[in-house]
Structure prediction request, 695 residues.
Amino acid sequence: MTNSSVLTVCGMCTVRCPIKVQVKNGQVSFIEGNPHVPAMKGAVCPRGAAGTGLLYDNERPQTPLIRVGERGEGKWRKASWDEAFDYVAERLGQVKEEYGARAISLSDRGGPFRDFHRAFLRGLGSPNYINHDSSCARNVQHAALSLTGKGRKAVAYDFKNSKHVVLQLRNIFESVNVQEVNNLMDAMEKGCKLSVIDIRSNISASKAHNFMKIRPGTDYAFNLAVINEIISKRFFDKKFENQYIEGFKELEQFVEVYTPEWSEKETGIPADQLRNFVKQLAEAAPSVIWHPGWMVARYTDSFYVCRTIYIINALMGSYGVKGGLPFVSKPGDVGRKGLKKFMDLYPKPEEKRADGVGWKYKHFQEGPGLAHLLFEAMEKEDPYPVKAYIAFRHDPLMGFPEPERLKKMWENLDLLVSVTFSWSDTAWHSDVVLPMSTYLERESVIATKNALKPQFFMRKRTVEPCYDTKADWEIFSGLAKRMGLPELVFETAEDLWNFQLEGTGVKIEHFDAKGMVSLADKPVYLNFDDYKFKTPSGKIDIISEKFEDSGIASLKPYESPNKPKKQGDFRLTFGRCALHTQGHTVNNPMLSDQMSENVLWIHTDEAQKLGISDGEVVNVTQNDYTETIKAKVTDLIHPEAVFVIHGFGHRLEVESIAFGKGLADNKFMAGGMDIWDKAGGGIAYQEHFVTVSKA
Ligand SMILES: Nc1nc2c(c(=O)[nH]1)N[C@H]1C(S)=C(S)[C@@H](COP(=O)(O)OP(=O)(O)OC[C@H]3O[C@@H](n4cnc5c(=O)[nH]c(N)nc54)[C@H](O)[C@@H]3O)O[C@H]1N2
Ligand SMILES: Nc1nc2c(c(=O)[nH]1)N[C@H]1C(S)=C(S)[C@@H](COP(=O)(O)OP(=O)(O)OC[C@H]3O[C@@H](n4cnc5c(=O)[nH]c(N)nc54)[C@H](O)[C@@H]3O)O[C@H]1N2
Ligand code: SF4
Ligand SMILES: [Mo]
Prediction:
């Protein structure tokens, strides 16, 4: 019997926690938190622990597959890797020849492991890289950029030292980031207060000192009134206001009409409760974190909700301070050299992006573009044809609204490739499936974490692949070899890592001890005066020139949320639970055992009107489309909304465990590909209504 353990990185969700994996006789036997990272407390979340459920799943794609029937019909022929690489490379080559390199696009899931495959696309000469973010945090990112010129990840959340944490549209105890949860719990033991603003009492709310149940879609009203209260009571940090905020006067005038009494009528949150809450915040300032949100692709005004959150943090003086939103350091900030980039092997393509980002929409950040607009360009062949699409670790048919519409938008594609470790609706609809090894069977490129203590971290292979799958770097090496990109052809992970580490002073073996290499000895709290916001004034600009130039108001008057066209319909809302990740863990036997389907939260009074009792199966209908689901009748949700956990309602026979269980929220969003936040770029997923009736 041989036993060993490997320090590596979890891949069950995008948080990418540092983990320790025990291996017995070539099999993964146990997964725990990396013991060298105190905030992990030796533990992982339930999904992290269920990694073996994925690894030993015999229903995931096990060899390359090439479609033989119609798209989506599920008729495949098995192929060797050589065959599959040749097939994809030949078709990519044809597209490139006929329509130019810009006709090739690639999407991924964002995150720190992107350099290699992005370099592949850039090497081909295409600007059309997109990621999932218009379905997730684009509004947050653009809100941060509009105020500070820096992205949302320029600050950390110093939960451990915080005195008051506010969660609005953020459910940290279920939509988990293990280290953040542990740090917040430590802080709460030391007296940190927690306030939750949500449309339902979730697990975070059950631990909160203040819970404010808000009417869905009215968060902007609440936040404007909070700013009104902070300013009228002179609760703001005067020194910070003076030195670091530009446009305070305009803000003060703008919020004058948005009183707590006015807000109460919109939000349902009593003016007194708002005032009391703001007083508590002011007492805890500046060690306050009002989390700007994560999955805030919800409404057509979500960008403004995020903006007001950042503004409130600024007024509390919490930018750049301990217990608030300190600035993170990059390797260069602590006198170290960053990783050498594969992307830098090639010049940035000069072509305009097909989604219009950067030229048609100048206020949006180019990086990951906006996926829904690229899909639209595929459909309309405007501004030019996009004919090949590689969905890498991305499942748009589950993650974007109205999948049938999206399939139509893809009809002009000559090639649709899915690179994935599990079946997904997108993989099933593809022309070629390139099966990726799970995170336990593959290495990734070395990644950088910008943080108070910046670091490099490494994902290692813990066991050899169970099936005929490959690591992502092996897949893109295989394609690069056939597409005239010899610089991206690597034989071993060590060669890959050595390329990245060149000149950094760090060696591969330095990762052995802890799984990561810290680039600073202790947390660095960057001094405010050394830190420059990237705005015209160098301060936080309340009025953003860049956005105003694109016709986006910095201070937008509040508008009430849309009402359902049919009286009695409910706003469809959704979120996550601690037991599943998006739509790709529902076929995991270990997690499905603990939660096999989603249920429909509906308020007791509303259920009573409809004659629906708890646990009863009900119909959910939009236009002519209906699915059934069990009702959870509860006082804990706002009566205007119904709520489900996202990711259920799978209909692929290859997923025998998930098949037919629960409801798919994304199928109840008719017209949803066109309903998005023009200021922030995020899809507005919660601008949809459904009818609920007895089945
Ligand atoms: N209706 C509705 N739509 C939503 C949401 C919602 O709540 N409701 N949530 C939105 C949000 S916040 C997001 S981020 C997107 C997510 O949607 P996507 O961006 O599509 O992401 P995932 O479902 O996490 O993963 C996509 C695919 O990557 C594969 N994969 C390959 N390798 C890996 C790996 O190493 N790790 C992981 N985890 N997966 C891998 C998985 O098998 C899966 O099929 O959906 C968005 N869309
Ligand atoms: N366990 C688990 N953890 C995850 C993920 C996962 O799939 N599973 N996914 C990861 C990803 S990709 C993301 S983006 C994050 C998402 O992290 P979060 O954004 O925190 O997650 P959600 O559960 O989507 O939404 C948060 C809360 O918003 C509430 N909400 C809905 N509508 C409104 C509204 O109008 N106003 C207010 N105030 N609240 C509203 C919901 O009830 C929910 O409690 O989680 C990450 N962590
Ligand atoms: S939060 Fe859970 S699933 Fe996500 S990376 Fe961490 S341990 Fe893995
Ligand atoms: Mo997300």
